[in-house]
UniProtKB/TrEMBL annotation, chain B:
Compartments it resides in: Cell membrane
Membrane-spanning intervals of the chain: 12-30, 99-118, 138-163, 183-205, 245-267, 287-312
Xref: CDD domains: TM_PBP2 (cd06261)
Name used for this protein in its record: Peptide/nickel transport system permease protein
Domain of life: Bacteria
Membrane topology listed for this record: Multi-pass membrane protein
InterPro entries for this protein: BPD_transp_1_N (IPR045621), MetI-like (IPR000515), MetI-like_sf (IPR035906)
Family as reported in the entry's similarity comment: Belongs to the binding-protein-dependent transport system permease family.
Stretches assigned to the ABC transmembrane type-1 domain: 95-306
Keyword Membrane: yes
An example Gene Ontology biological process: transmembrane transport
Amino acid sequence: MKGLLKRWSFWCLLVLAALALFGTRLFDALPEAEVAAPFSKPLWLDRSLPPTMDLELSGGHPAAELDWVFGAPSRFSLRVETALPAPSRFVEWTIPGGKTFRLTPLNRGVELDGRDIAFKRSLGLPPFGDASSALFPERGTYRIGLSGEGEWEGSVKIRLEGGRWGLLGTDQRGRDIAALFVAGIRVSLLVGIFATLLATFLGTSLGLAAGYRGGWTDAVIMRAVDLLLSIPLLPILMALAALWGKGLWQLILILSVFSWMGTARTVRALTLTLRDAQYIEDLRGLGAPAGYILRRHLLPETLPVLLATMTLGVPGAILSEAGLSFLGLSDPRVISWGRMLHEAQSFGAFTAGAWWMLLPPGLGIALLCLVFLDLGKYLEERVDPRLRGGNVL
Amino acid sequence: MSGYWARRTGSALLVLGLVLVLNFVLFRMMPGDPVASIIDPNFSPEAKARLSEVYGLDRPLPVQFLRYVRSTLTFDFGISFLTGRPVVEELKSRLPNTVMLLGTSLVLSSLIGTWLGMKAALKRGSLLEKCVLWSGALSFSFPSFFVQLVLLMAFAAALPLFPLRGTLSVPPPAGGLPLLLDYLWHMALPVFSLVLLGFGGWALYVRNLMVKILGEDFILLARARGLPERNIILGHAFRTLLPPLLTIFLLSLPGIVSGAVITETVFSLHGVGRFLLEAVTGHDYPAAGASFFLLALLTVSCNLLSDLLYGLTDPRVRMERGGGR
Amino acid sequence: MRKSLFALFLSAVLLALCSAPRAEASFDPEAFAGPKIQDLYLVIIRDPDAQLLALDRGKVDILGDLHRPVDVDALSKNPAVDLSLASGFHGFFLGFNVRTFPWNSLELRRSAWQALPRERMVRDLFAGYAEPLATFLPPVSPYFEPDVTAYPHDPEAARKRLAGAGWTWGSDGVLVSPDGRKIPPQKLLCPTASTAPTTAEIAVRMAEALTAIGIPVQAEPMDFSTMISRLDERDFQMYVLAWQMTRDPDSLYAFYSSKMDIRGGYNMPGISDPALDEVLDRLRFAPDETAARAAASEAQKLLSDLVPVVPVYSRYTISAVSKQWKGTLVTDRVTADNTWSLLAMEPASGPMRPLYLVQADEPRALNPFTSSSAYDWQVLGLIYDSLIAVDPYTLETIPWLAESWTIGTEAGPAGPRTVLTFRLREGVEWHDGKPLTAADAAFTYETLKKNAVPRYFDNVDNIDTVETPDDRTLKVTMKNVSFWHLHRVGGISILPRHVIEKVNDWRSWLPASEKHPSDPGLTGIVGTGPFVFREYRPGEYVRLSGNERFWLGRKR
C-alpha cells in the first residue's frame, strides 16, 4: 500500500476524481450554457481585445463617450426597452472622424445584433462579417447618443463583447471550455471504470464457467470468444453506436460486450490449472458444491491478476469512447473529451486558429490513460515480481 | 496434427458463417432505409415506391437474405445505395490507398520498434531503455486522432510544409517519378503519424520479450560456452523472438484497420476506412455489409494464420492444446 | 467644396447603378459565348477547413457553398476573395399534427408562430447567415405574394391572442383549452444532433419558446429515417423539416392539399380545407401564367391564415471567388459558380489557365438516369443541356436548346390537354460531333417513361405522346392541362440517342468509366453542354474541358 502512495499516478487520479465530483462547482454556469461569443480566446492570450462592456442610455442619460484603446469588439448588441416608443428619435453612433451611423429608431422590442444581415444592410455594410468591426474601425473617441430632444421613458442597453473568456476560452457555441473539460473528466472516468468493471465481471464469470465445467459450456463459450474476436472492434462499435448508441450507458454496455474476451481466456487458463490442484480435488471429494469452490477458492486466486488486467483495461475503454466520439458517433448531449475534439474539428477550430480548443481534451485523455497504465503496472508488479526492475513508470 | 488444423479451420469457417448472419441482421436492424430518407417535394409517392422497387427493398426478408449470401460468397457485394456504383468498384478504387497507408506504417513501426526494443533490452537501465518504456506508454495513451490533428495543424495549416488533404495534388503531375513523389509527399504526414503512434508499442513489447528471452537458460548456456555476443543476439535470441513477433504482426493487422478509419478521416484520404464510416452512418447496407465481411475475413485469416504459425513453431503449445481452444 | 461634393454624388450614383442587381434590365443569354476556360477541375475537398485553406493558398478559385459561419467570417477579412450571398428556395418549417388536439386549434397555431424568436435563432445558430422566413414561399420565388397575414415575434401578443380565444393557464403555467382540456406534453420530432446539429438545437429552442407561453413541448431527437416513418404513419404531434423548393410554386399542392394526406405524401400536418384545396387544384392544373399567378397568390394568402406549418428560416448560399478571376456573374438568386460565370470567367491578368472549383463531396455514379445527389449534378449540369433554362436574375424561363416553343391546348379523349411544341436550335452538336435532332429529345423522354426511371417519374408521367414532325421540331402531348408541364418537360436533360440506345441496363450504367467507341478523349458521358467530361479520379477531382463547339453565341 505504501508503494501506492509514492506513485504520482495515484495522486493524479485523486485530483482528477475530486474534479470530477466537485469540479462543476467552480463555475457559475452549467457547462452547456453559452457564456460568451464563440471562439473567444482565453483571458491570458490576447491583451489587445477589449473586455466585455455594458452601456445603458436612458432619457436622463442620453449620451455616452468611449475612449477606445482596443481592437474591435467581437460582438455588438443593442436592445431598446420602453413602453412608449418614440419612432422619430434614433440611437446614433459617431466614430472618430465624425461619421455618424443611425442604428435604430426607439421602437418597442428592438433587438439588434452585429450579426443580423438586415442591420448590416441598414448601415450600408456588406452582409458578411460582424458589423462591430465597421462600427469600431480605429482607436479613438466614440460617441453614442439619442437624437432629438425631450423626455423619454425607457432605456437602451448596449453590450460590447470582447472575445476573451475564462481559462481556456470558448468553443464554437460559446461554451466555457474549462467547464466542458472538467465535465469531461467525469464521463471519461465513468466510461473507463464501468465498462471495464462490466467486462471483467462478464469475462470472469464466463471464464470460470468454461474452465471449471469444461465440455459443451467450454466449447460454446470459446466459440463465442472466437466469433467476437473476429469482428473488428471499431467498425462494430460504429454500427452499434449508430443503432443504439444514443446515451452513455448504452455505450458502456456495448464497449463491455466487446472487451470481456481477453479476461475470459486468462481466467479460463488459470481455472484449468487450478481445477486439478490437490486441495480442490479434496474439496470436491468432500462434497463441496461447485459454487462454493468457485466463490471461496478459485475466485480469490484470480483476483490479483484481475485487478491488474482491469486497471490496464481502463485506458482501452477510454480510448475507444474517445475514438467513437471523435468520429461523431456518440451522444452529442454527453460532454466527453472525444466529443470536444470532434466538434473542434467539424466546427472550424482550425480556421479560427483556436488551438486552445484542441489541446486540453487530447492532453486530458493522454493523461488519464497514463495514470491508469502506471497504476496497472504497479499492480502487475505486485502480482508478478519478475516484471520489476528497470521499470521507470 | 492434421486434426488440429482441421479443427481450427473448421472453427474459422463457422465463425465466418456466423459473421455473415450477424452482418445481415445488424444492418437490417438499423433504423430506416435509404428510400425513406428522400424528402423532396418533386418525388411523388409513386416515384418513391418505384425507387423502393429498384433497390429491391420491397422483397421479403428471407429473399433479401438469400440474395445477400449469394452475392457475398461470390464477392459480388451488390450496388452501393449511396453512390449507385458496384461496391467492388468502390473498394477497388480505395483499397490501394489503405493498403499503402497501413502497410507502410506497419512495416516501418515494426522495424523501428523491434530495433529499438532489442537495443533497450540489451542496455538495461540506460536512458534508451527509459525512453523506450515511456514511448510505449505515450504512444498507447495519446489518442491517434489527437496526434494527427496536432500534426496537421502544425505542419500543414500553420506551416505549409505538407498538403492538408488527399493523396494527390490537383492536377496530379504527369509521368512516373513526379507522380510517385507527389503521392509520397501526400502520404508522408499520415504515415509519419501512424509510425509515431505505433513504434512505441512494438518497442515495449519487443523489449519485454527480449528481456524474458535473455533470461532463459539456453542463452546463459551459450554465454557460458563463450559464443560471441553478436552471434548470441542475432542468432539464438532473435530467432526465438521471431515467431511471437510474426504472430503479433499478423494479429495486429486487423486492429490497425480501425486506425485507418480515423487516419483517413483526419487526412481526407480516399480509403476503405472512411468508406466504412460513411457506409455505416449512411445506412448503405451493401457497402457496410461488404466492408464488414472483408474485415472479418481478414481477421479470421490472420487469427488462423497466427495460430498455425504458433502451432508450427512451438511444439509445447501443440501438446497443451490437444483439447482444442 | 462643391466640386468634390458633386464628384462624390456622381460616384455614389454610379456605384449604386453598378452594384444594384439589374433586375429591371433584361438578361441576354445570347451575349454569352462558349466557355473561355479550357480546363475546369472540380476538386473534391470534403473538409471545410481544407477547402478554406485551399482557397487561401490559391489552390482553388471558387468555393460554391460555405456552410460554417466561422468560414464566412474568416473569408470576409480576406482581401483576395470576393464573397457573394444568394437567397434560395430552402425552407425550414415547424409542423403540427393538425388532425388532433391541441393543434387542431387555429388560434393556438397562430400563437405558436408569434412565440418563435426567429431572428434570435438565426443570429445564434447561423451567426446571422440565414433569412428568417415568415412566408410559405421564399421571397425570391417569382410567385411570391407579399400581402399576407403576418405574425411578428411577440410572446405577449401571443398570450393575448390565446386569452382572447378563450384559453386559460393552469397553475403550472400549462394552457387549458376553452372547453377545459389541458394540453398534454408535446413531443417535437427532430433529427439527432449528430446528423443535424443546428436543427436539433433549433428544435430545443423552439420547445423552450413554446413552453414559455404555456405549450409544454420537448424536443425528441431521433434517427432521420425513423422520423420520416413516424411522419408517414401519422404518429407524431410536432416536427421540424426542411424542404428544398423550386421556382415553381406547385410544390404547395404537394404540401398542403388534402389529397396529399396519404402514405408517402407530403401533407404531413393533415391540413384539409376545402377553399385551400380548390385553390391548390387550380394552381396545380393552371392552364396559363395568369391563372397560375392568381392561384399562387390566393394560396399563399390562405396558407398564412390557416397556418398548417410555421416557416422558420431559409438558408442563404454564400460563395467565395478569388479576385484573380474576372467575369463572374453574381446575382442574389444564384451562387458564383453558375453556368454563366463559368462561360465568361477568365483570369484577371495573365494568360489563360485552368479553373479550380471546389466540389464538397464525391460525385456518385455520374449516371444521368439514377444520379440524384447535388454533387453528381454539379458535374452533369455542365455537360448536359435541357430545352429551357432559367434567367439568373428573374428566374424566368429562357430558351436554351429550344429556341422557341408554343403552349397550346387541344381536346383529348379524357378531356383537354396541353400540347408543347418546341423548335430546337440549329447547328447544335454533341460532344462527339454528331448533330442534335428532335429524335434525341424524343428518345430521351420515351426511354425515361418506358423504364419508369424513378428520378424522372413525375416529369414524364403525364406525357402521353411525343412526335418529331421534323429534325428540329418536337411535339409533346400531355395527358392533362397544366402550366407547369413546360417546366417539367423542358427541364429534363437531353441525352444522345446514339449512346443511350446501346445501354443495356440503365440502373448499372457507369458512363464515366466507359470509353467512347470512336473518340478516345471521351467517355460514355456525351452531352451538348458547355463542358466536356474528360476524367473522374475518385477521391481527387473531376476534369472537364471547355466545349469549343458549344452552340451558344456561335457566329455562323
